[in-house]
Amino acid sequence: MAITSRVYLDNAATTPVHAEVIDEITSVMREYYGNPSSIYTEGQKSKELLERSRDIVASSINAEGREIFFTASGTESDNWAIKGAALRYFGQKMHIITSRIEHHAVLHTCESLAKLGYDITYLPVDEDGIVSPEALAAAIRPDTAIVSIMMANNEIGTIQPIKELASVCREKKVLFHTDAVQAAGSLPIDIIDLGVDMLSLSGHKFGAPKGIGALYIRKGVRINNFMDGGGQERNRRAGTENLPYIAGFAKAITISMADLQIKADKLTQLRNELIEKVMNTIPHTRLNGSYEHRLPGNANFSFEFIEGESLLLMLDHMGFACSSGSACTSGSLDPSHVLLSIGLPHEIAHGSLRVSIGTSLTSEIIDQFVVSLEQIVMRLRQMSPLYEDFIKNKTTPIIPCTKCYKEQIMKEV
Amino acid sequence: MAITSRVYLDNAATTPVHAEVIDEITSVMREYYGNPSSIYTEGQKSKELLERSRDIVASSINAEGREIFFTASGTESDNWAIKGAALRYFGQKMHIITSRIEHHAVLHTCESLAKLGYDITYLPVDEDGIVSPEALAAAIRPDTAIVSIMMANNEIGTIQPIKELASVCREKKVLFHTDAVQAAGSLPIDIIDLGVDMLSLSGHKFGAPKGIGALYIRKGVRINNFMDGGGQERNRRAGTENLPYIAGFAKAITISMADLQIKADKLTQLRNELIEKVMNTIPHTRLNGSYEHRLPGNANFSFEFIEGESLLLMLDHMGFACSSGSACTSGSLDPSHVLLSIGLPHEIAHGSLRVSIGTSLTSEIIDQFVVSLEQIVMRLRQMSPLYEDFIKNKTTPIIPCTKCYKEQIMKEV
Amino acid sequence: MLYSDKVMDHFMNPRNVGEIDDASASGTVGNAKCGDIMKVDLKIENNIIVDAKFKTFGCGSAIATSSMATEMIIGKSLDEALGLTNKAVAEALDGLPPIKMHCSLLAEQSVKAAIKSYYEQNGGIPEDKKNLFDVLQEDEHSV
Amino acid sequence: MLYSDKVMDHFMNPRNVGEIDDASASGTVGNAKCGDIMKVDLKIENNIIVDAKFKTFGCGSAIATSSMATEMIIGKSLDEALGLTNKAVAEALDGLPPIKMHCSLLAEQSVKAAIKSYYEQNGGIPEDKKNLFDVLQEDEHSV
Ligand SMILES: Cc1ncc(COP(=O)(O)O)c(C=O)c1O
Ligand SMILES: Cc1ncc(COP(=O)(O)O)c(C=O)c1O
Question: Which residues of B belong to the active site?
C-alpha cells in the first residue's frame, strides 16, 4: 500500500531549496570568495553583491536596505531582537510581554532573560489562537522593554492582528517585535503598513537553505548587539558575512514574493479541500486553529483516541511526511504548548497532525492521503485502550462524532 | 605593470571554498531537504548526515561527537563560549580573563559583558605577542568565571602556549576557552593534549564557506545556552541545522587535516622566503610577531613612513590582495590593537601589511610580489612628509635601516 | 533511522493486539495526559501465562515495546514474567533511543500491574514478591 | 568599489606631489599617530596661488583629496582658496565613503594652515579672516 513517490507535507518545518537558489548559491561560492570587509577588488565585489542582496530583501518587505540585518537563522533574529531590546534597558526596564503560543526561539529566549531577573508576561490566546490587542494594552507597564508577538503560528497557522498589536505598542511607546518566520513567503509583508519595530525572517521557510535569516530593525530603533565582534552589518551584527546564503536568501524571497497572491489562493483552495475531506471522512476529528485567520498552507487536526507520533510513523511508511504536536516527537512529556494554550486537553493535543502543503499538491494526492490517513487512524484506534473504552460506552468522546467540521465552520463565519 | 591574473594573499581573512566542498554543499542542498528534527524518512536521512559530519569534525580534533556543537561562525562560537560561561555564574563569578590581542569576537564580547557588571582583565603580551602563563596564574581570582586566550593570532600569526595556559586554568579549576579559528587548518589540534575546556572553529578559514563554525565543549562542562530556542544540538544550540554547510565543514576539515604537516612545511618555507626577500629588499621594514611561534602562512610587516591602506590599494591595482592593520581599513582612528599591544608606535602600526599565503604560492610569484611591493613602498615614501623629514635628517627612523631582519632573527633564536 | 528495524517491525506489525474476553487478570498503566497508556490482558493457567493481549495509546516505541513484552511473557511462569525488565524489552528490540526508554518502562509496569491484580484476586500478593511491584510507583505515568 | 573612479585616479596618479623649494608658505596638519599627515607648499604671487605641491602620509582618500585640493587652488586668489571646503573637495572627487570624510577635512585644513602662515609672515592675519581659521582647531588631528 506504500506509494512509490514521496509526498512532502511538512513545508512549515522546512522547504526544499529552490533550484534557482541552489544555482545562485553555488555560483556565489565559486565566484565570490572575497571577504566583503576587504578593500581590494575581490572584497569590494563581494560587498556589492551583499548590498544588492540587502536591497532586494528590504524592498520585498517595503523596508530600506539599512534596516535589514542578515543573521544565521530565524532563531538568531528572535534572540537578537528580544535580548537586544531587553539588555539595552537592563536594570531599568525589566518587563517583557509575549504570547503563550510563540515559537521556542522566543519563549526560551524569554526564559533565559527571566534568569537574569526579567519579568515575563505570557499573554493568553483565544481558542483560535489569537492574542487580543486589549489584553496587550492592559499588560503593558512603564517598565516594559519589549513586546514580541508572532505574525503567524508555526503549528496551527493562526495569523495575529499584528497591525493592531503594533499600534497599541506605538501608542504606549514600547518596542514591538514580530516573528514573521512562518508568514514570509505566504503572506504579504509591508513593514510600513504593519508598523512594527522589528521583524524576524528565516530563509528555509521559503526556498532558501536552513541557516540564513534576517532581522528588520526600523531605522532609529536602538537595541544592543547580540553577536559581538567585528564591524560587519554596520557594526550591529558581527561575523564574516555568509554571502552565498545571503544571495540565495535574496533570490528565494524574490521568487516567493513574485506571485504570492496566486500561490496563496491556490494553497488556500487545496488546503480547504484537504480539510473538508479529512473532516468528512474521519470521525472525532477536530480542526485546530482559526478557519479564517489562517496561513494558506496550514492544516492542523486532532484525532481523538490516538497518539501523534505513531500516526506520523505510519504516514511516513505510506509515503507522507507530516508533523505533529505530540509530546513524543519533541522528547518532552507535554504535548505542544500551542495546542494546550488554545484549550485542548492533553489527550487531544497528543493526537495532533500538522499538514503544511506546497503548491505541487493536487486533488489526486489529497485523495490518496485521506485514504491512507483514514486507514491509519482506524488502525491506531483499534489498538487504543481509549477507543475501546469509548466503544464500550465507558467514556464519552471529547470531540463530537460527525459533522464536527461543519458545525465548527458555522460557528466561525 | 598590472599583472593579468590576481594573486590572493589574504587567506587569514578568508579562503576560497574548496571545489570538493562546493560539490558536497550543492549535493546536500539538492538531496537532503528534510529537517533533521523530523521523524520521517527525509528528516532521519538528514539527521544521519548531521551526526556523521559531527563525528568527522570531532575526530579531526581528537574529540567525541557529543562534544561538537555546530554554530554559524567563529564569532558565534566565541560569543557562546564566553557569554555562556560568564552568564552561568552571573552574580557569583563576575571576572573574566582574556588577552589584549584577541579577535574582536572575543574582545567585544567581553566589553558587552562588562556592561552587565563583569570585570575584565586584559593580559598584556610580550613584543612577540605571547601571553605568559605566569601572568595568567597571577590574574586568576576566586571569582574568575572563564579565561579565553586565542590559539593563534589573526594578524601577526603568533601561536600561544595553549597547553601551559590551559594547565594553569585546570590547576586553578577555572574554565579555559581558546579561539582556534586561525589555527585550524594550519596547526594540528588535539584537544586532549591541549587540555582546553572549549575551542572555537570557523569553516571559512580552511576551505568551507563563511557562515559555519563549531564550538568544542568538553563533556561535563556546563555553560549557558547562547542561542535559545528549539531542541537542536542536544538542547544546547537552537536553530534548524544548516546541513549543507555542516557537511561542507566536515569535508573541508577532512581535506585540510589530510596532509597538514606537508602543507605546513611548504607554507613555512614559502613564507620564510617571502619574509627574507621583503626584508632584504625594503629598508626600514619590520617583521611583526614571533619568528619562531608563528602560523606557517603568516607574514606581517611594518614599513616606516607610509600608511597601510594606500599600500593595499596600490597592491590591489598590481593584482595582489593583502590586508593591513591600518586604522583606515577598519574605519577607526586607531590602528590594530594587536600591533599596538606588541609595542609598536602608532605611526609604525599604521604602515603594516599582512600577507597570508596559500600553498599555490610560488617563488616566482614571490619575486613578482616583492618587485611590486618595493616600487609601491618607494612611491608612497616619495609622497610622504615623514620620509622627507627623515631624508632631510630632521628625524631618525624608528625602524633601523638595514639588516634589521637578520638582527631580529639573531635575537630570537 | 529513529528506530531499529526490529522496533519498526513490532510497531508496524504488532503481535498480540487485542483483548482477552476471559482474561485471568488485566493491568493498565500510564495516562492519556502523558500521551501513553498500555493495557495488558493475561490468561493464566497453573501459574503460566498462556496468552497475553495488549492495547496501547502511545508513540511508536510504546506500541513496539507492548508487542515485544507480550511476546516475551507468553509461555512464561508468573515468576519469570515478574523478572521482565524494561531493559530486557528494549534490548530485545535492538535498543531504543535514550529519550524513548521511558516507554519500555510502561511495558514492564503493565505486566506487573496485571500480575499484581491476579495475585490480589487470588489470595493476595506473596510476601516475598511485594517489592517487585515497587516499580509501579516509580514512574509518574502510573495511574 | 570603495572609492569612485575619480578618487582612484587622483590616488593612483596624484597631481602636484612634491615640494616647492622657494615656497611662499607651507602648512602641515594631521599627525602620524592618527595615520594621516598632509603638508602643502604654496607659491603665492600678488595674492594668487601660482603653484601648490603636497606630500601626504595617509590612506587612499587622504592622498586623493590632497591631489584634488591642490588642483582646485592653483590659479586662485587667497580669498578664493580660503573658501575651499572639505565638502567641495569631496564633491569634486564624486564623493567619498562617509567614514572617509575626515580625510577631506585634512585637505581644507592644510591649505588654510599654509595661507595662515603666509599671512602671519606678511603683516598678520586680516581681522575679517580670523574666523576662517577656526577649522584648524576643530579637529583632533591638528598638530
Ligand atoms: C581569530 C579569529 N577569531 C574569530 C574570527 C571570527 O570568525 P567568523 O568570521 O567565522 O565569525 C576570526 C575571523 O574572522 C578570527 O580570525
Ligand atoms: C515561527 C518560527 N519562529 C522561529 C523559527 C526558527 O527559525 P530557524 O529554524 O531558522 O532558526 C521557526 C522555525 O523553525 C518558526 O516556525
Answer: 328
Assigned CATH topology for domain C5-130: Sufe protein. Chain: A (3.90.1010)
Residues A249 and A367 in one domain: no
Same domain assignment for residues A199 and A281: no
B5 assigned to some structural domain: no
Strand bridging mode C36-45 / C25-31: antiparallel
- Rounded to a whole number, what is the distance in angstroms from the first to the last CA of chain D? 32
Mean pLDDT, chain A cut into blocks of 10 residues (413 residues total): 76 97 98 95 96 98 98 98 97 98 98 97 98 98 98 98 98 98 97 98 98 98 97 96 98 95 97 97 96 97 96 97 82 85 95 96 97 97 96 87 52 52
Same domain, B228 and B205: yes
Q: What is the pTM of this model?
A: 0.95
- ipTM for the assembly: 0.94
List residues of A with catalytic annotation: 328
Q: How far is the CA of A12 from the centre of ligand 2 (A)?
A: 9
Write down the residue that cell numbers 574568575 correspond to: B144
Which atom of ligand 1 lies closest to the CA of B210?
10
Residues B371 and B390 in one domain: yes
Residue A102, burial from CB neighbour count under 10 angstroms (0-12, 13-18, 19+): buried
**Which helix or strand (DSSP H or E) is residue C27 part of?**
strand C25-31
Per-residue pLDDT tens digits for A215-238: 999 999 999 999 999 999 999 999
Distance from CA of D2 to the nearest CA of A (A): 7
Q: Which ligand is nearest to the CA of B229?
A: 2
Touching C (3+ Cβ pairs <8 A), the chains are A, B
**SS3 call for A271:** helix
The rounded distance, in Å, linking the Cα atoms of A210 and B242 is 5
Active-site annotation holds for D59: no
Residue A369 domain flag: yes
Q: CB within 6 Å of ligand 2 — which residues?
A: A 73-75, 78, 103, 105, 150, 154, 179, 181-182, 202, 204, 213; B 239-240
Average pLDDT over residues C121-141: 79
Has residue A12 been placed in a domain?
no
B235 Cα to the center of ligand 2, angstroms: 15
Q: Kindly state whether A39 is in contact with chain D, defined as any CB-CB distance less than 8 angstroms.
A: yes
Give residue A331's pLDDT. 64
Q: Is B253 in the same domain as B191?
A: yes
Query: In this model, does residue B330 exceed pLDDT 80?
Result: no
Query: Does B303 fall in a domain?
Result: yes
Render D18-86 in DSSP notation, one character per residue.
S--TT-SEEEEEEEGGGTEEEEEEEEEETTEEEEEEEEEES-HHHHHHHHHHHHHHTT-BHHHHHT--H
Closest C-alpha to A399, from A304, A276, A325: A304
Q: Do A173 and A313 reside in the same domain of the chain?
A: no
Note whether C143 contacts B: Cβ–Cβ < 8 A. Answer: no
Domain range for residue B148? 19-257
Both A224 and A342 in one domain: the answer is no
Region of B91 (left: φ > 0; alpha: ψ -120 to 50; beta: rest) is: left
Among the candidates B199, B232, B257, a domain finishes at: B257
Q: Which of B225, B257, B289 finishes a domain?
A: B257
Are B148 and B103 in contact by the 8 Å Cβ rule? The answer is: no
The DSSP bridge partners found for residue C57 are C37
pLDDT tens per residue across span C58-100: 999 999 999 999 999 999 999 999 999 999 999 999 999 988 8
By the CB < 8 Å criterion, does B310 face chain D? Answer: yes
Substitution target from B303, B309, B333 for chain D, most D beta carbons within 10 A? B309
Question: Is the pLDDT at B315 greater than 60, yes or no?
Answer: yes
pLDDT for position D141? 43
Domain of B294: which CATH number?
3.90.1150.10
